[in-house]
Structures are given as C-alpha cells and as structure tokens.
Amino acid sequence: MRFPLPALAFAKFSLVLTLLLLSAGPAGADFKVCNETDNRLGIALGYSGPKGWASEGWWNVEPHKCTKVMSGRLASRYFYVHVIDYGKGRARWDGTHTLCTQRKLFTIKGTHDCKARGFESAGFFEIDTRDFPAWTVSLEDNQQISTVIEPIKGGTRRKFHNERIAPTQ
User: Fold this and answer.
1) Tens-of-pLDDT digits for all 169 residues of the chain?
2) Contact (Cβ atoms closer than 8 angstroms) between residue 104 and residue 154
3) CB 79 within 8 A of CB 48
C-alpha cells in the first residue's frame, strides 16, 4: 500500500534537496599542476580575473606529485605558467608572455612595469583550457608539457596537447 506524502512535507523535502544540489560544486573542478620530473619544481600562475591581471607563486611540487593551484570551476579560458626547476640550479621554463614575479611568496596585481614596482619579470607559457571547467598541466622531463582535460563527472582523462619549452638559466 502506498501512503501519499502530505504536500507540505513534500515541498520541504524538495526545497532541501534543491538547496543541497545547488550548494554542491562540481567535483574536481580545479587547475592542477603535476610534476612528472625527478626534481622539485616551483610554479607561478598568471591569469586575468574580474579585477584585471594577477600573478601568484610559489607552489612547490615534489617529484611525481600533483598540486592544486586554483580551486573551483575555472573562471578564465587562459592561464599562464612559469616553472623553476630547483634540481637544475633554478633553471626556468620560460614562455613568451611576461608577468611579474618575486623570489618569495607573492600575489601581484597588474603586468606593467615589474622592475619599477620592485618585482622581477618572467616569461610564462600560455595554457588554453578551451573553457573546460577543470584542467591539469603535466610537466615532464626535457621541458615537455602536456595538458589534460579533467572530466567533472565520470568520463576519461584525455591528453589534449603537447608543447616543448626551452629552459633558460
């Protein structure tokens, strides 16, 4: 025998369920960097947000480990990464996009006049996430970079593109 739920109880249940579903963010929606080398790497991240350009660092990523550098659904299509290889005398993996950094932990607003503002300039390489809500960058030996689409719910990880970055001292 079926017992009908009173309308008020059903409405309360529906409201609670809706609020739970709305408050739960997508699982795994992050920007991650994986270090597939045998050396510890330092990571700086650049991005354009609602308040303009910013760069942040440093995340230290141990060999063969991953770290989350941005939490939640990605709000921008393009991110910029600068890498320092501590095992190779601070060799840098430079890209063609110049952003500001410094040797200690930092969050720097803006990209202009880095040196005049007391910061260093560094080359960052561009990562195009193609507006996916989550992304993983895999840093491999010989400055090989792979980007991986991370599925939000189920699905398969797909390697999306490879790029080789020339190291600088």
Assistant:
1) 444 444 433 333 332 322 222 233 444 578 899 999 999 999 999 999 888 999 999 999 999 999 999 888 887 889 999 999 998 877 788 889 999 999 999 999 999 999 999 999 999 999 988 888 888 889 887 666 665 555 444 444 444 444 444 344 4
2) no
3) no
Strand pairing report for 41-49 and 52-61: antiparallel
- The DSSP element (H or E) to which 92 belongs, if any, is strand 91-93
* 151 assigned to some structural domain: yes
CB 33 within 8 A of CB 82: no
Q: For residues 32 and 150, what is the distance between their CA atoms, to the nearest angstrom?
A: 10
Whole-structure pTM value? 0.71
Whether residue 8 is contained in a domain is answered as no
Cα–Cα distance measured from residue 6 to residue 152, given in angstroms and rounded to the nearest whole number:
36
DSSP SS3 for 7: helix
Task: Give the integer Cα–Cα distance in Å for 114 and 3.
Answer: 70
CA 83 to CA 43: how far, in whole Å? 5
Total domain count, the chain: 1
Is 12 among the domain residues?
A: no
